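Sample pair:
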Amino acid sequence: MDALFNETSLQLVQRIFGVVFPLAAIAAVGFLYARKRPTDMAVANRINIDVFIPALIFSVMASSDFRLLDYLPLAFGALVVVLGSALVAWPFCRWLGVAPKTLLPPMMFNNSGNLGIPLLVLAFCEAALPAAIVMFVVSNLLHFTFGIYILEGHSRPLQTLRMPIILATFAGVVWSVWNLPLPEPLFISIDMLGQIAIPLMLFALGVRMTDVDFSQWKLGLWGTVLSPLSGLIPVLLLQPLLQLDAQQFGYLLLFAALPPAVLNYMLSEKYQQEPDKVAAMVLMGNIGSLLFIPVVLAFIL
């Protein structure tokens, strides 16, 4: 019995290592490269957001085996994670002495792109890619509407609708619902562009890690702990209402445990909303995820 338990534990550790190591390795390459040769990823990130990620979204949603209705409960679950995180984190604003505009966005909008998509694919194989895309789209749609409203006091829905990621999502929905044909050479071209997105996101995350500022380390540490907890608590409380099957519940738990998105720092810098504090939460949160993610994976797997 002990031998069987030890063998099972070893297999679990090996599987978790197999999931986490490729992500950490690619990010480490970006980090080491940028340390040796300071690198500006602004152009590459813009191309990724405007071309490669939209291509990935469309290629997944337009594929013949993608059924949109199957993912509606999961999309609602992602909505619960984002909005529920704000409710959980709100009381901590006064306790930590931090403005809600500074604390809430990093707790609400997680790294569902750079980390979430490759993490779910490695943990659950290619079958999880559509689910990862759906949760990523929900998070980003809320980020560029409700998230901007938090920072600016109003949102720009028409500007949001013109974003390539949103346009690709709408196009993917149309192709999925009406099952429209797509010439195979064209689909292969779009799919190949989309395959660039995931490794480039991880590499860019590693490059961003070179900018870690430890002057706000206390808030960064609190954010590291609060970010996954504020996402996991709503999921665990509302699962009896959501009634997700075991597989989608696992997807949502992993999504909820992700660290803050790097985009939070970019927007805080744009709107001058204490970017040094947001940067500490984002970057330390992503480093801390190397501890939290394996724990969640052990529970799910």
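The longest helix spans residues 2-36.
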